[in-house]
Amino acid sequence: MIKYLLRRLAASIVVLIGVSVLIFLIARVIPGDPARIALGPMASEEQVAQLRAALFLDRPLIAQYVEFARNLLRGDLGVSLYTNRTVTTDLRQFLPATAELVAAASLLMVVIGIPLGVLAGHFRDRWPDHAARLAALLGIVAPSFVWAIILVLVFSYWLDLTPVIGRLSDSIVRPPVTTGFVTVDSLIAGDWAAFKDASWHLVLPAVALSLSGAGQAARLTRANLGETYGRDYIDLARAYGFAGRTIAWKYALRPAMIPTLTILGLDFAAKLGNAFLVEAVFAWPGMARYGVNAILNKDLNAIVGTVLVIGFGFVVINLVIDLFVAYLDPRIRYRAAV
Amino acid sequence: MINRRMLLAWTLALTLCGVAATANAQQRVLRHDESAPGRLDPSKVVDYASSVLAMNVYDTLVNGDPSGGVAPSLAESWTLSADGKVYTFKLKPGVKFHGGGEMTSEDVLFALERTLALNAGYARLFKGVTGTAPDARTVVLTLPAPNAAFLATLVRLPVMQKSLVLKNVKPGNYGDKGDYGEAFLAERDAGSGAYRVVEHNPQEQSVLAKFDGYFGQFATNAPDVVRIRYGVEPATVRTLMARREFEVTSQWIPSEIKRALAETEGMSVISERGAGYFIMPMNTTRPPTDDPHFRRAVALGLDYTALIELMKVTPNFAGAVPITGMLPSGLLGHDKTLPANRRDVAAAKAELAKSKYASNQPIMELIWVGEVPLEEKIGLLVLQNLAEIGIKVNLTKVPWTLLTQQVTKAETTPNMTQRFVSAPYPDPDALISQNHSRYKSTTLKMDWYSDGESDKLIEAALAVTDQGKRRELYGQVQRRLLDATSSIYPFETVATFVKQNYTVAPMLDDTSKGVAVQGGNWMFRTFSVNK
Fold it and tell me: Is residue B455 within 8 Å of B437, Cβ to Cβ?
């Protein structure tokens, strides 16, 4: 297992180097001069040239990459021309906001999606199955930002129940930053009012972001459960007289979960970048929105920094999923060992 | 029984006192949104949001004046030498910085030196300017050449506390000045303005708090706290306004939402005008817009009344007004006697017949910037107007970044583009100089039109201090450029916002009190929140 882990780690480093080269080149192919965009149309040619030199944009691509890699090794991603701060400062501030949102959405995906899938799989072709499939379909057909707007309209505009923007109400003092997750930080600080408020702010964006993934999880779980239910050992369990619930949750779900977990894990990493529309609707100060704004403003350092973080997220999640799947399925552990 | 009554009375009295105390302690908050994040560093201001921040957090030697010129601010008086090159400013005494300490002439010079060293923002306006400080309250600024717009450009030189900035420098590219406080001023302030920065998160919001040591006056019920939210979706702004969780919207939300909000009880539309226009430059080097007859045909073919109608926020509230010439009504040189825009289909067809493309006409490419949806509507109207006179138009959406690249070469600049422009400082030079040939290859000069005589006139108008003479020279520039029809100026823009009626914004409520400076009407100390 350790050999397997080391092999995967080595592969991950290669992937990250590849991502850094690729995004470094792609960012430079996006049309527009970052210096001119940052300085505005009234800046003189001399001002633009000076900024281009400061950003090393007047050097050959290879020299630019060497400079970038050298700084990266020192943990320096450069300055964002969009926010005017170092990219590391920005990411430190914005990543936890997105991570908190995506974590809450992923939790909801599991909590809503998997039971819905189990329900549908267990009562296949009966009314609970039809109802669950319809609910799953509804989650998938509308993009998350449409759900975001619908939820705001219903719960904030008409019913006036939930907050509309941000992570905390203006009247609440933000707890000291420990993890960057406001809910967790407020718990650490023992500030229940802040915890309640932060959780309340998290509800709508997390629900909006989770619905498509929950639908996907439900459909996958249902399909895989259907396949598992056809296996001999399930018939054996039935013959032994195990209760239907026990068969579903204890014997059928575990093997059926492997593809679902893989997809959910990748969805988690993908949401780090894809959450931007939900972040835009709820004015959520997250990294996904930062990344999109960086692209629109051709903020080279911020683009590269954001993509590297998302790439790193994918690599880590992939690794975790592989280990978890290996834990769930002994055959994979065995194959990895030999 | 008496004891019980007394107890009840005391309880009631204490409760009322508590309520009163809470009400007193309650802060007046002004909440507003802007599309792009404001840059906090005063030497790097280039856009509207950053201008609003700078004008509230920092002070300048002079401010914009509703009369069209400038009014004293940090400088209580000034004199100009006979050769027009040396300005001597007497500073107001007792101006305090947010970080403690009093403002002196050293701080003014430091602001100038830092702006020139960083060479960002509006640094080009001060190129070649040098300064000395004979005493703590006197600043002498020497210009390389006489510059009639210089006083006006000073609204773009925010003064910062030298000692605080230097105390917070980090290693950087500016020799013994390190990073010149770039990292510090990206998140903190060193100003003396009416508001100090409490929080600045470029992705979320800037929070400003009233500065009690401010030398100027605050309006009655001026906001104690100002929250400027960045990048809030228009639909979300609408919800926040409906819930009374926002006091004033930005100008960037779509007209439909402004209209819906304006029709809501307790809200109304406010505006600023006189400092901006809408321009449609035509590339004079590419077919078919390289032909002056073709360009005149386009100009005569546009329905300006319909364009202005399209800009309306409500049936009674204009988002644009007719313009004559190239200068908006709030600036010197605005000339009502210049020919007004008019649609004349017959004349347009006659001009088209005279053009070299009368028989074999290439398709004209008109672009709209993806980040400004309103430009698509304008583009569609133009497309329809020009189809009526037989001009074929290809309307294309391009992102701003792509346009900035396209305009660097004449051969890749589209035939016709669109742009909303506003004056960064209260002087006609701020707008008319954008027609100077030196701005070719930028989004300011997308017509690629060269006219040496116009360049000379623009430079001459800057070198004379007599305002009558300047007006005359700007009149000549406008006539020459309008005759060439290298760009069309369809209307003067009226920036519109929606506010809660319990909010008073004097410079926006009454446009005659406004100043012709980008962001200059958002002095929060003049606002009142009567909630």
Answer: yes
- What is the CATH code for B30-247+502-529? 3.40.190.10
The CB density around residue B412, as the number of other CB atoms within 10 Å, is 12
Query: Who's near A71: CB < 8 A, 6+ residues apart?
Result: A77, A78
Task: Tell if the CB–CB gap between A283 and B119 is shorter than 8 Å.
Answer: no
**Other CB atoms within 10 A of residue B343 CB:** 18
Residue with tokens 């930062």: A290
DSSP run (H or E) holding A239: helix A232-239
Distance CA B162, CA B221 (A): 32
Tens digits of per-residue pLDDT, B167-183?
Answer: 999 998 899 999 999 99
Residues of chain A with pLDDT under 50: none
* A42 within a domain of the structure (yes/no): no
Alpha helices in B159-254 (DSSP H): 162-167, 182-185, 234-242
Which has the higher per-residue pLDDT, A224 or B134? B134
List of chain A residues whose C-beta atoms are within 8 Å of the C-beta of residue B127: 44
Inter-chain residue contact B183 with A86, CB threshold 8 Å: yes
Using alpha carbons, list the distances in angstroms from residue A287 to A307, B244, B510. 10, 28, 40
CB-CB under 8 Å, B201 with A280: no
* Structural domain contains residue A294: no
d(CA A264, CA A266): 6
Give burial (CB, 10 Å; 0-12/13-18/19+) of B256: exposed
pTM of the model: 0.85
**For position A210, which CATH number holds?**
1.10.3720.10
**Domain residue ranges of chain B, discontinuous segments joined by +:** 30-247+502-529, 274-494
Q: CA triplet B139, B145, B150: central angle to 5 degrees?
A: 55
Closest CB from B187, B205, B239 relative to A156 = B239
- Using an 8 Å Cβ cutoff, are B256 and B245 in contact? no
The architecture that CATH gives domain B274-494 is Roll (3.10)
Number of residues that this document lists for chain B: 531
Pairing mode of beta strands B225-230, B29-34: parallel
Q: What is the pLDDT of residue B2?
A: 45
Please indicate whether, in this complex, the C-beta atoms of A281 and B122 are within 8 angstroms of each other. no
- Chain B nearest C-alpha distance from A26 (Å): 15
Q: How far apart are CA B370 and CA B401, in angstroms?
A: 10
Q: How far is CA B483 from CA B111, B353, B378, B423, in A?
A: 42, 19, 24, 23
Q: What is the mean predicted confidence (pLDDT) over B486-509?
A: 95
Mean pLDDT of B104-132: 94
Evaluate whether A213 touches A221 at the Cβ level (below 8 Å).
no
Q: What is the pairing mode between strands B29-34 and B320-321?
A: unpaired
Is the CB of residue B313 less than 8 Å from the CB of residue B496?
yes
Whole-number Å distance between alpha carbons of A74 and A55: 17
Domain presence at residue A320: no
